[in-house]
Write a structure and sequence with these properties.
The structure is a homodimer of 345-residue chains. By secondary structure, the first copy, chain A, is of the alpha+beta class. Chain A has 9 helices and 13 strands. Chain A has helices at 24-31, 41-44, 77-90, 111-128, 183-191, 209-219, 233-245, 260-269, 291-299; strands at residues 50-65, 71-72, 75-76, 94-106, 131-140, 148-158, 174-177, 223-227, 248-252, 283-286, 308-314, 321-324, 330-332. Chain A has a 7-stranded mixed sheet. Chain A has a 4-stranded mixed sheet with strand order 1-6-4-5. A two-stranded antiparallel sheet of chain A has the order 2-3. Chains A and B meet through α1, β1, α3, β4 and β5 of A and α1, β1, α3, β4 and β5 of B. β1 of chain A pairs antiparallel with β1 of chain B.
């Protein structure tokens, strides 16, 4: 039977299963204004997708964010969901232009938390100069999700001079990190249940797109490869590239920039900073002749002021990552075994 | 301390938290071959995003799929995740070209289930002629998710003659359904725990893109609006459009195509077919003069053989949906109140 009875009064405090029904409550969730801050011509159309004008080479990327806790020192899941995908596009040499936004909400999430997250998303999108043009909301029963998961997918315009591909990496290329490692993962771990301790460490979550585009303006194809060391940290990213290229990646422990407080916290937590996630950092593989100039450009950027050359690509040690330790020894740095930091992004 | 001990043997039967770490296990999950069937040049690059060449008007859409159960008569979550987003693009008048694919897996999912889902995704993508070019896998702890959630986002090329926008809808336009309603939701409900009953009803999940493109080739801008009545069913979609246009939408109960077995099952389950989700169906708003011809084209398609004119747009009843019942009465069909069918897509 069709339901034509008078509308029941709805709680606007808590997300319920009905908010994901595609019926009135979803509509009403819209009408509570929780999405209002995101409004633009694309979203106002309330259609199944957004219509965009695109020409030339674009990058396309996706990530689901399941970080726990939702709010952490230096950011929250909303900011992370924007910056993470913006940065994935930046790693393709692209300036992010459009994002999709999809929520999977667990029944019982306070609407105030959703509002706070959406406000963060809006702010981060503004900062990264990216438009949120299409979206989706699903609600699952209590105990079938965890507060909120967010997927963002992004489309970006690839810089005309960008030629970023692992098959361009060659022996002699230089490895440059854009800043200090391990802040994000350490900040999260420091507030996880049972591990809380006093610290001022904040996640490094930040959009990298604008800086990458300026570097491409100046250095073009001499920048051969980019990757942001998120889950699994620097060590995992280096191992992935080593695996793809079958070249050796040699890094020097003393050259890897890490804040003192982060290093101390990692020691306390039993974490190796090389494996800890970052959210506002990239590893660049740069042509040898351009390396010093590239580093200088990078250090001229606010986000790149701690940048450092950390090593080089070599034809020895094919497929392996070799660390020269502070005391002069050499050892293989492997992939992360198991899970050091679950739900870190 | 870095982990350089010999690699432990891994179970390949069950997804563990480590599979989502971004470290070895994720890498190993790749290496188990579970993703092999999806391999192509884009995914083989294993980069943070895919590089694509696009020119002109494109549609961009996203959806997260949380359907329960994962496998159901007529399909599974993998097939649904491809078709659903392909269809959202089709509703924008676009032929799907590229999809992203993101998994949120609950620890403990049998790898065999993941393999079956990925195989379904591959088959559905082939059928819809869309390429899966970028992806992501996250794993959450047991009890913090529900087996698997899938997000797909899609990019499609908009047909040059497409002019699909709710602001083009006018009084006198004709409402055409491409087929029978309510099969998907009824199929899911018929196998939900505690509700199992003997039936041969199957989900109607199917890609609509190719048919829509052929209709646009022939009818161009005389096709004014398209929407697929998924969550919330036909009634909700009509209410949304009525709300956006402030026009009246009048439909005749006797004209709405529904299979007899589905109608009987809905009666048994206490469901109104008007509110039940569909996954291979669209509602078209067509210029009056073109309506009969459009219907004929539609009926010439295998997927459109049950198509029917179900009503018209009117300047009366602004913002409302009016149903002319079989016995001649008229009543307002409202939005769905609450949740008739949670986790239906």
């Amino acid at each position: 039977m069709p339901v034509t009875c008078p509308l029941p009064a709805l709680s606007t405090d808590i997300i319920t299963l009905g908010h994901g029904s595609g019926g009135l409550l979803t509509h009403r969730l819209l009408e509570t204004g929780v999405f209002d801050i995101l409004r633009n011509d694309w979203l106002d159309q309330q259609h199944d997708g957004a219509s965009l004008e695109l020409n030339g080479r674009v990058a396309f990327s996706t990530d689901s964010y399941v970080i726990d806790p939702l709010f952490f020192p230096g950011g929250d899941i909303g900011e992370l969901a924007v910056n993470g995908t913006v940065n994935d596009l930046a790693m393709c040499g692209a300036a992010a232009r459009y994002l999709s936004l999809s929520f999977i909400i667990e029944e019982g999430l306070p609407v105030a938390d959703l509002r706070r997250i959406i406000s963060s998303i809006h702010k981060a999108a503004g900062l990264a100069q990216v438009h949120i043009v299409t979206g989706d909301t699903k609600v699952v029963e209590r105990g079938k999700g965890d507060k909120i998961f967010i997927n963002t997918s992004g489309i970006g315009s690839i810089h005309p001079q960008a030629a970023i591909h692992h098959n361009r990496i060659a022996a002699g290329d230089v490895l440059i990190l854009s800043g200090n490692i391990a802040a994000h993962g350490t900040a999260i771990m420091s507030i996880r249940k049972g591990l809380e301790f006093e610290t001022s460490i904040r996640s490094d979550t930040a959009p990298l797109g604008a800086m990458v585009i300026r570097l491409l303006d100046r250095w073009g194809s001499r920048l051969k490869f980019l990757r942001d060391p998120t889950r699994g940290g620097l060590a995992s990213v280096l191992n992935e590239i080593a695996g793809l290229t079958r070249l050796g990646f040699q890094i020097a422990e003393e050259r890897i920039p890490v804040e003192e407080e982060v290093e101390a916290a990692c020691e306390m937590l039993g974490l190796d900073p090389l494996y800890v996630a970052n959210e506002g950092l990239f590893l660049a593989v740069v042509q040898q002749e351009a390396a010093e100039g590239f580093l200088e450009s990078l250090r001229g950027e606010e986000q790149g002021r701690h940048a450092a050359i950390i090593g080089e690509v070599t034809s020895e040690y094919g497929g392996k990552v070799i660390l020269k330790s502070r005391i002069g020894g050499r050892r293989v740095v492997g992939f992360l075994i198991g899970e050091q930091l679950p739900r870190i992004c």
